Structures are given as C-alpha cells and as structure tokens.
Amino acid sequence: MKKYAIGVDLGGTYTKLALVDKNGRVHCRAKLPTTAYKTKEALLTAIVAEIGAILKENRLSFRDLAGVGIGVPGLVAFEEGLVYSLTNVPGWKNVRLKKILETRLRKIPVLVDNDVNLMTLGESRFGAGRGAKNLVCITLGTGVGGGIIIDGNLYRGTSSAAGEVGHMPLKEEGLRCNCGSFGCLERYVGNRYIVDEIKDKIRSGRPTKIRELVRGNLSLVTPEIISKAAKKKDALAIECWRRVGKRIGVTLSGVINLLNPEKIIIGGGMADAGEVLFKAIRDTVNERALPVSKGAVKIVKAKLGNDAGLAGAAALFMPK
Ligand SMILES: [Zn+2]
To answer: Cα 149–115–50 angle (5° rounding)?
Structure first.
C-alpha cells in the first residue's frame, strides 16, 4: 500500500493542502488564498503546482501517492467527481473536477467530496470518532453541516446529498431559510442568527458584559465574543448558549432516534463555546431521545480542528 495521499480542502477563503500519511498525520501544509485567483482554471493550476512542490519538498514522486482527495464547500456527485456548485466560491457550476485534475496530475486517482463529509471521515478514522462504527458529525458555524458514518463508511445517500442536519426542520411554521424552506435548524443556530438574536436582546436593554467586550459597538459581536462573556458568567451569554444547545439537542434527538449512532461529534467554531453548550445539548437529548438510543450515544467535541478535512480527504484512499 502507498504510504501517502494529498488532502486538499478548497474553502471560500483559503485552499489548504497537505501531505497525509496512512495514520492520518498531516505533514507539509500549504495554503492558497482562494479568492485571489480570478478564475477556477487559475486556482486549479496553483493547486497542481502546489502538489508538485509538496512532493518535491518531501523527495516523493507522483508514484508515491495513493491519490489526491479534495473537499469542497458544496454539493458533489461523488462517483463522477462532479461539483454542482460551491457556496461562496463564484464561477463553479457543474465542474468535472475529478476528470480535470486526473488529466493534469498524470492520471493519479482524484476523489472529490463535500467538505463536511471529509471532516466526518477524518474525525471518524483519526479523531474523536475512532473505534465507533456508526456516528454523525455536525459542524456549527455560518452554516450547519453534517456527515454520517454507517458501519465505518460515509453514507452519502442517493445523490451524494445526505447529512444535511442544518436543514432538518426545527419549527413547522418557522423562519425562511437560505435553502428555500422554513424553520430549518440552521436558521436558528447559524452564526449570524445567534448574533442577531443576542443583539436584539442587548438593544432592548438587557444588562450584559458583551457591551464592554465590544466597547459598545454591537457590530463587533461574534459567537467568540458571546463565548467569552459566557466564560465570565454573563447571564445573557449563558442563556444564549443554552437556547442554542436546546435547539441543537431537539434536532439531534431526531437524528439519534433515526440512526442510533454511537457518537455524535460536534465541531466548527461554535463548539468552542464549550461545556455550557454541550450540557444543554446533552440535557435536551436526555429529555427527548428514545431511552435505548440515548443510552448508547456519546456527544463529544471534534478533535482534529482544521486538519479533519485534510485527513479525511486523504483517508478516501486509505483502507480501514
Ligand atoms: Zn434550510
């Protein structure tokens, strides 16, 4: 078996690359500013050049690579390696990324998948999910993403679109979501919405340390600031994370009843809110999920941070 694969994490701001060994260890990171490339061709040329540079630096050749795995922020037809479109990266519509790169990378196998799927695979193989056969991973940030592992393998669904926990309904008659539907989880716990909600409460006169933390400028409020305030025992901030945790817990109770997973892994910037958020999630799941399933599941924080996607992209080429 070949010892190395290249993982690529194509993001809206940065495209990260790394050499990953068969134990999921990430070596030789590189970072390209995605938006600095005017066209997707220019970005792909830079990716190909960077892969060459990583190999050269490690005195490896294309023959030493099991393959190149690429995670992208959008929907992908996995078998064809076709990217339908990317959130926050303009100019990507129906791109046959696998085919284009395999041609340019001297026929090295290339696999393309959704970024949250690859983060899920990375955590499952090398991170917080090690040893669990069935798990669900969710990421909390601007959006809410999810990935599912069943019997050790990614479950992608019929059209590679499975795992969208963020667009599971939370409220029957809820607010309009970006996806076109109403009342989705993401519409209630996405970064922007949490921040808007707490700003409304601050404007209505609730006392809070958040005001000092942003020196009165409410446009500077972020989930990190809310976490900071919560760690200083600020009542409004703690209440915010409890409310968010309850909403996530309600949706996860449904996920747990549906899939009976061994682990739920929670990552993304918001997971740094820590115990106040996790406790609210666990308490809600305890109240709501079916006894046998909730007894079997552990709700834990993701371990690999930004490396999860890179390790997962490489893991596409590594036998279990
Ligand atoms: Zn939605």
So the answer is: 130
In the reported structure, the alpha carbon of residue 165 is separated from the centroid of ligand 1 by a whole-number distance in angstroms of: 9
Distance 151 CA to ligand 1 centre (A): 28
Q: How far is the CA of 145 from the centre of ligand 1 (A)?
A: 11
Unique residue bearing structure tokens 């996607």: 309
Per CATH, 4-122+307-315 and 130-301 having the same topology is answered: yes
Rounded to the nearest whole angstrom, what is the distance from the C-alpha of residue 228 to the centroid of ligand 1?
29
**pLDDT of 151 above 80:** yes
Whole-number Å distance, alpha carbon 57 to ligand 1 midpoint, is 44
According to the model, what pLDDT value does residue 57 have? 94
Superfamily of domain covering 130-301 = ATPase, nucleotide binding domain (3.30.420.40)
Task: Indicate the range of 87-91, 103-107, 123-127, 161-165 predicted with least confidence.
Answer: 87-91
Q: Find the helix packing angle between 235-259 and 191-203, rounded to 10°.
A: 150
Whole-number average pLDDT of the chain = 95
pLDDT digits (tens, 9 = 90+) for 251-288: 999 999 999 999 999 999 899 999 999 999 999 999 99
